[in-house]
Design a protein that fits this description.
Largest sheet: 7 strands, parallel
Number of domains: 2
CATH superfamily of the largest domain: NAD(P)-binding Rossmann-like Domain
CATH architecture of the largest domain: 3-Layer(aba) Sandwich
Strand content: 15-25%
Radius of gyration: 19 Å
Shape: globular
Number of helices: 11
Number of strands: 13
Distance between the termini: 28 Å
Order of helices and strands: EHEEHEHHEHEEHEEEHEEHEHHH
Length: 333
């Protein structure tokens, strides 16, 4: 990060995988951080809790007034709020709508009322793209969501564009591939980060379930590289009103990822099963990302390949004896 004065940051959705890692890094950099969540009482107290300013949506007052209070204190907002998971969104589409699109409109209304044009960094998903086969996908590749989750991501991207055109915000959209890295033990068992689920199961010597033949390609990005990209999206003027693929730039099959895990963590059971219908319906096929735009505008160059990122992740898990490695469900984004 630059040595220039750093703008105050709000992290909406601080208790998830991305939020926890981002906040820790922002505080290391001396950034003034506020966080926005439903209620502090719903979550275990993070180690950084005394070092941030808290805003809660469930406190007395309307949703709109609580959002406005939080947004008014920040120049940059990292907007991690919402529900995740392609399959989950198909099971509960109305819940996905409420947790994503409706909440985002309320948030953008608060940004408009704040009057100071905050910069919003939004984590979208590679799942918004139509199938691309063996060709690397640039940001201008056609979209073609297969799930309600991915459709809502595109919808929110358009919301951001509309409010930016009206001068209410600026934005940076990060179309993230498959992130992985150490996750807080209390969050283990969440199935939306497929490689994290595999790592947890492998270290616990529990069976890893693969749907189909496992040859589908994914771009796995280590959390430290992802956070570097998101910091750049928040602070670089070149990121204003842009969409970026945020990926490692290297694709591997699930089988290749498991082979690397065996090399690093030792043998564990692998079970192949036919695709369940609800997973097959939202399976997007291979993903190969073109990250040249992020390299050119953000000077983003991932430092970790799959093996080195897995090495760091496994070391972190093995250094956390309280981690309760448990079975995690299925594949998400």
């Amino acid at each position: 990060m630059s040595s220039n004065p750093k703008p105050p940051v709000l992290v909406w959705g601080p208790m998830g995988f991305l939020g926890q890692h981002l906040i820790a890094r922002l505080l290391e950099e001396g950034v003034e951080v506020s966080v926005l969540c439903r209620s502090r009482s719903l979550y275990p107290t993070p180690v950084w809790a005394p070092h941030v300013r808290w805003f809660e949506l469930d406190r007395p007052g309307s949703l709109e007034s609580n959002l406005l209070a939080a947004v008014s204190h920040a120049s940059v907002v990292y907007n991690f709020a919402g529900s995740s998971g392609a399959v989950a969104s198909m099971r509960q589409p109305q819940h996905s709508l409420d947790e994503n699109c409706r909440a985002q409109l309320a948030f953008l209304g608060a940004c408009e009322k704040s009057g100071h044009r905050p910069h919003v960094v939004f984590p979208s998903s590679w799942l918004v793209y139509a199938a691309g086969g063996a060709a690397p996908l640039h940001e201008n590749h056609p979209t073609g969501p297969l799930s309600v989750y991915a459709a809502h991501k595109i919808c929110i991207e358009h919301y951001l564009g509309i409010y930016a055109a009206q001068g209410c915000i600026t934005y940076a959209v990060c179309r993230i591939s498959n992130p992985y890295g150490f996750d807080d033990p209390v969050r283990m068992g969440k199935g939306y980060k497929i490689l994290n689920a595999f790592i947890q199961l492998a270290l616990a010597k529990k069976p890893v379930v693969i749907f189909g033949d496992g040859k589908q390609l994914r771009d796995f990005i280590y959390i430290d590289d992802l956070i570097e990209a998101m910091l750049a999206c928040g602070l670089n003027v070149e990121a204003r009103n842009q969409i970026f693929n945020i990926s490692s730039g290297q694709s591997h099959s699930l089988i290749q990822a498991l082979e690397t895990l065996v090399e690093l963590a030792g043998a564990f059971p692998v079970v192949f099963k036919p695709w369940p219908a609800e997973y097959r319906a939202v399976e997007p096929g291979d993903y190969i990302a073109d990250i040249s735009k992020a390299a050119d505008l953000l000077r983003f160059h991932p430092r970790y390949d799959l093996k080195s990122g897995l090495e760091e992740t496994i070391l972190d898990y093995r250094s956390a004896p309280s981690a309760n490695l448990s079975l995690a469900e299925g594949a998400g984004d």
